[in-house]
Amino acid sequence: MTTNALVIGKFYPPHAGHRLLIETAAAGADHAYVLVQGSRFETLTATQRADWLTEEFDGANVTIVPVRNDCPEDYASDEIWTAQLENMRWALKAHGVEKIDAVYTSESYGDRLAAAFNAVHVLVDLARATHPISGTMCREELTGNWQHLVPAARRGLAVRVIVVGAESTGTTTLSEDLRAHYRQQFPELADVPEYGRYYTYELLEALQLRNPDATVADLVWTDTDFGIIANRQNTLEQAAAEAAPLVIADTDALATTLWERYYLGDGSYGAYDAQAHLPRRDVYLLTDHNGVDFEDDGWREGEHRRPEMTEWFKETLTDEGHSWILVTGSPERRVATATAVIDAMLAQQNTFTSPAWQSRTVLEVAA
After folding, report:
1. Residue 229 in this model has a pLDDT that exceeds 60
2. Can you spell out the DSSP letters for 159-205?
């Protein structure tokens, strides 16, 4: 086994082929150093890509190093090779690495790169037979190649739309309408329901085993309950992001903190840890209570507090710095408002910029 292994790449974005390369290097060395080279001309920063790979290899003998590299690519130029190599050497030196024993690549330039480090070259799946995927393919068809991305990259790239609002203001209706609309484009789009409602059912069912006459009004809530609900919302949302490029969630952990405040007052913080680990958001859709009849389904109890709750959402979303849109009007108008912004965000998600000298990886198609 060698001592230090080196892997370089753009990882734009990180996919299963990259994971195989890094796993192979980590298995063949005491420690693998991965240089994530990002350019100012690219949509995703080197730090973003490095963070995803760090999450993917958490606990392994792997160090992920983001490197800013705006140097042109020109494999025929000795001068450009020198510039690129010095960028790599000093990125390694900054992490205390003076000697590289093996260079792992899936590229034809691997021999020359390894020779520059006085290291052996280990070629890994040059033909991409194990994982027939490339960064070029992911950038050009993100949706079709979603499952090839490493899970952390999927969680980081997914467009996240969170629908929130007071009781009986149409949050579930809007969520369901949007999911039905976008499942035509994303068949794997997952449900992210309001877990608190199902948790309430379970609590009441347990209570009725002891007291058959108990109703929802007899439930006694604790901060622990809201912590469980909030953490479960995060889990459901993250799983949905891994499944499809779009997440439409019917509430979230932030909303759970407001419901905890509603039931237990300002001094209860059971859901706040989950809120502190809230995944990245793109937009909140806040359903307005105005013009929406209150439907008492036997589980609701807050018609008179709907205006207050709506203001709580506006205040909290603003204070936390989130993008939010108040959706009003008919169900059709609400869907139209939502799809306008979601379509724009999806178009932005599928736009990857690259410098003019960026090479494209084209995989050979077997006859």
Report:
1. yes
2. EEEEEEESTTSSHHHHHHHHHHHHTTT-TTPPPB--HHHHHHHHHHH
Model pTM above 0.85: yes
Residues 73/359, Cβ–Cβ less than 8 Å? yes
Query: CATH 3.40.50.300: which residues of the chain?
Result: 152-349
Class of domain 152-349: alpha beta
| Mean pLDDT score of the chain | 94
Residue 367 has pLDDT above 70, yes or no: no
CATH 3.40.50.620 residue ranges for the chain: 2-140
**Could you give the angle at the alpha carbon of 12 between the alpha carbons of 121 and 41, nearest 5°?**
115
Yes or no: domain 2-140 corresponds to CATH 3.30.70.20: no
The partner residues of 29 in beta bridges, in order of sequence, read 2
292 vs 345, which has greater pLDDT? 345
Does residue 22 surpass a pLDDT of 60? Answer: yes
53 burial level (CB within 10 Å; 0-12, 13-18, 19+): buried
For residue 128, give both structure tokens.
Answer: 């991409």
